[in-house]
């Protein structure tokens, strides 16, 4: 069974990535917030996303941070909603925290279906 250690280990991996994988300021700013630090971080093509579960398929109903030339784009993958286009990473992180689904807690040992079942 996977535990909170899995989330911690994934954060260590993401925080240690070089700038070719993800801009270091993105995971550092997200990790600074407990509400996000308890989620499972994912990186793909310079984009930082978070899941409320630690097994695939992940549930990406939490904001995802996309870098853009003059700031960031924060969107929710599950419904495609744009949460905002902030200028700073700190503002991007605040948008994610402000739009967390009700009852969001630590990532669970399961899949998106397990989160839906509660």
Tag the structure with descriptive keywords:
alpha+beta, 3-stranded antiparallel β-sheet, two-stranded antiparallel ribbon, 33% helix
Can you describe this structure in just a few lines?
The chain has 118 residues and is an alpha+beta fold. The protein is 33% helix and 19% strand.
Low-pLDDT windows of residues: none
Q: What's the domain count?
A: 1
| SSE pattern | HHHEEEEEHH
Q: What is the percentage of strand-forming residues?
A: 15-25%
Helix content: 25-40%
- What is the overall silhouette? globular
Instruction: State mean pLDDT (0 to 100 scale).
Output: 95
- What is the straight-line distance between the termini? 18 Å
Which structural class should the secondary elements be placed in? alpha+beta
Q: For the report, how would you describe the main beta sheet? A: 3 strands, antiparallel
Biggest sheet, spatial arrangement of strands: 3-4-5
